[in-house]
Specification:
Length: 311
Amino acid sequence: MKIIVVNQDHSRTRTYSGSGKGLGAMLLCAFLLSMVIGGGATYAWLTSSQEQMLTKEGVKNWKQVLDTQQQDLGLVRQQAQHQLDALMLRLAELQGRMTRLDALGERLTAKAKLDDGEFDFSEAPALGGPQELTESEAAYSKVSLLDAIDQLADQIDNREQQLDLLDNLISNRTLHDDSFLAGLPVRKGWLSSRYGRRTDPFTGRAAWHNGVDFAGKRGSDIISVAAGVVVWSGNRSGFGLLVEVNHGNGYLTRYAHNDESIVKVGDIVSRGQAIAKMGSSGRSTGPHVHFEVLKNGKPQDPSRYIYRASK
């Protein structure tokens, strides 16, 4: 048998001749050699890897891996606990704000004189309606717990602003109604002198009267016709013992010839509150109250305010 070997550029060739048995033996030797080399390498790799896993160093490495994983797990638990604590604090804050809103709502209900049961802030509001979502909408409708809490907080902020605005409006309306001048300055008495030109009781001559007089029993109550602030409480020439109340919006009322003042400067008085006792101090012929109404410093006819309906 001949074996021809050609080099890479086909420029030279070599021919080997031999018997078939010799060639077969040579190929068998080459195959066995490759098997021995490959098997030895594989055995060496398996042996070294197995030895590495079973040695103290390998066990130490595995322990380090497990320790790292346990540390990571502990860190995850700690972060989860922190987030849970934050959520609990946030929920507590929201619950406190909801309690405040409930109390404010009940107070506004009482102020507005709403029918019982129309607004019940002790119960959750009645809601309803079907939910119809497509699959695509449903896929985007899921929110996390944090998102839900944030949405609730935004709703509470919005309701707080609305309730605060409503509270201010109702308070301003109540203050305006209380400061509305209307009614008599006495609980009991009779009209003894009107506003305008009259005969002076001391000189008998024609004179101008800037108020109205209500006669009554000495010591009877003189009351404020509207809410306001006491700006004068004391003696004044011609008026005797005088009380003045500023009601805002340029309005001021005077109550003169009192026997006793029961309020002092700076006191806040309400409509119908007793502010003095009827007397005959100053330029007076008998127990009565001289009642004046001034707007921006100019006298007004008190009868326009005495006989109009209260708000």
